[in-house]
Amino acid sequence: PWWGLVSKFPEKDVHFGLWWVCFSDVYETSCVETARFFHDDTWLNAVRALVIFSVLLSLATLPLAVVSTVKSSLFFSTDAALLALAQTIAMLIGLAVFTGEIPKLHHVGTTSVGWSYGIGWFGVGFYITGTVCLVIQTIMLKRRKLYENIH
User: Fold this and answer.
1) DSSP states of 110-131 as a string?
2) What is the structure's pLDDT at 18?
3) From the DSSP assignment, how many helices (H) and strands (E) are in the chain?
């Protein structure tokens, strides 16, 4: 999946993702690791780490969210909401770093973003929606618990 595109010439494009860079022209396509294409790929390593961290947090959040919904558990709901917030922030920072670094590649050629990058931002919308839902669920469970303790 490619996150960016560098158009060097009308007939040759460079598609790059988080791990691979592929050179394509009319006749063939060849790929190399991104470290061989970017001289300074520390920003790319940061994006990789944040995206992987966000995905791992989402894998941890999903079962907690399901359990908190099924059992109406305030403990699981609070944990799921905090993990969802952390995963959203990690993905937002990773995409923001990528967004900030793309214009700096102008010396290589004309740059634009790819379809995976767009899917990443689309996914952030789902992350934010899920986080808001979990926070609302946590607030509602706290209110219900408080109401039950009073009565």
Assistant:
1) EEEE-HHHHHHHHHHHHHHHHH
2) 85
3) 4, 5
Give the model confidence (pLDDT) of 38-85 as tens digits: 777 788 899 999 999 999 999 999 999 999 888 888 889 999 999 999
Phi, psi of 41 (to 5 degrees): -105, 25
Measured CA to CA, the distance from residue 119 to residue 141 in angstroms comes to 33
Taking only the tens place, the pLDDT of each residue in 77-132 is 999 999 999 999 999 999 999 888 877 766 666 677 788 888 889 999 999 999 99
Q: Which of 149, 139, 127 is nearest to 77 (CA)?
A: 139
Contacts of 11 (CB under 8 A, 6+ apart): 25, 26
Tell me the residue type at 12.
Answer: K
Cβ-contact 58, 18 below 8 angstroms? no
What 135-142 contacts at long range (C-beta under 8 Å, 24+ apart), as own/partner pairs, is: 135/81, 135/85, 137/68, 137/69, 137/77, 137/81, 138/74, 138/77, 138/78, 138/80, 138/81, 141/68, 141/72, 141/73, 141/74, 141/77, 142/74
Partners of 29 in the β-ladder: 24
Residue pair 113/121 in contact (Cβ under 8 Å)? The answer is: no
